[in-house]
Amino acid sequence: MSESFSTLYELLIQLSDSISKSLSKAPDTPPDDGGVSSKALLEALLPRKQPPRSPNIDGAQLHTSIRDFALACAVLSASQSSAHDLLTWIPKDLSAAADLAFRKLSEAYLMDYSEKNSKTIAELGLNCGSVPEEKKLVIELTPEVLPLLKSRIKESSIDKSEDCDEFSAASARVPVGFAIVAAYQFRWFVTQIDYPHLGKLSNLVIPCALTALDHWSAEIKGQGMISFIHIAKNVNAAELGWFQDVILDACCQNIASSDEIWELVVEMSVLIVTCTQQSNPRSPWFDKMLNEMLSHLERQSRNKERRVAWLRHIEPLFNGVGLVLLAHFRRIFPLFFKWMHADDDETVLLVLKQIETVIKLTWVRNTQYVERLVDELAVLYKEAALKRSREGIRDVVIRILILLHQCKGVQFEAAWGKHRDDPNLATIGPSLGASLGERKATVVQLPYVERV
């Protein structure tokens, strides 16, 4: 064993021992049903010093030990954002220690194996000189680790190709806990790599992410969604290549997900569809995605968490569709009108923000909703007197009314006429009067958009 080889091995064992000691003190609760113990999984991944009589560790064994140590660190680090019983027992200081230990190992590894690392990175199509030092070991391990994690996730998934009831619980064969841990490990590896390097690894990353997304477990799906959110923010559409339609179909299939991952599926779907279809507002994927979401929201319009999540993340999709939103008004505005009078201020402020966005994008050319919108805004302005966020709500209501005044002119004035003498709306008058003057002095230029 060379001196550098021996030094790296000793450091690995030292870091592993330190984590093992902290891990042994952590109060893990063993599963009652004979399921998976994540603590036992972690202990099995941490390398142990070879007994004196054993033959010296060779290069392949060292590499395997480094890979397993990285997988253990991935679980410990990823646990910081987990609420699952398998990982919530891990103390935050142990997660932080794992982060630090992996950084130390990475630095030592590059000192002794920089040539090997550079070769692996180059084979993946990346420019080694542009890859940050702290990311190089992760990237080197990725081609080896991701197929292993994909297989582990798939073990407990439902295989529709089998000659059996495809809706049977595949987890009866393999406990789903193994797949949950693997999904967190996968998400950690993916989120360590960012633009412009992640795009070069799409052929490795996306199949594993799709496997997580196709799993029946919401916990595993959630980690796949977080991975796709990171992918969408760190690759360009061309790098997604022929995976685009497969990913978009998976997004649509998952829109009816459970409450715990609804926000993730909305954010993921909006990011993916806008990334891949941004130059085509009439893309059938925009239409399908929006209709799937609206159908789901119509069935659960009273669900606060779902509507807030959708309103928080939907604006990029609205911007991507632009004037074509007119085709969806008959479904969007009934939801908007209902949510404008929700009990919680967050929903009200978010829906007003999206109404403002829709008006700016479409100039409300479909006129049948103008009168109803004016009426609902007038009611909301008065309702706001009893709300905690009344000033913020009233400010946005006035902005929307001014927008409507500027774009609909006579039609708006006819709709507003019934409210003009309402003493509870008297403070709006001066603002609308000023906007009328601005309207007469300004010609609003809209970009050309083909007729809907």
Mean pLDDT: 89
Radius of gyration: 28 Å
> Helical percent range?
55-70%
Distance between the amino and carboxyl termini: 72 Å
Q: Largest sheet, described in full?
A: none
What series of H and E elements makes up the topology? HHHHHHHHHHHHHHHHHHHH
By helix and strand content, what is the structural category?
mainly alpha
Globular, elongated, flat, extended or rod-shaped: what is the shape? Answer: elongated
Task: Count all strands and give the number.
Answer: 0
Treating each run of at least 4 consecutive H or I residues as one helix, how many helices? 20
How much beta, percentage-wise?
Answer: under 5%
Low-confidence stretches: 162-171, 441-452
Give the quaternary arrangement of the chains. Answer: single chain
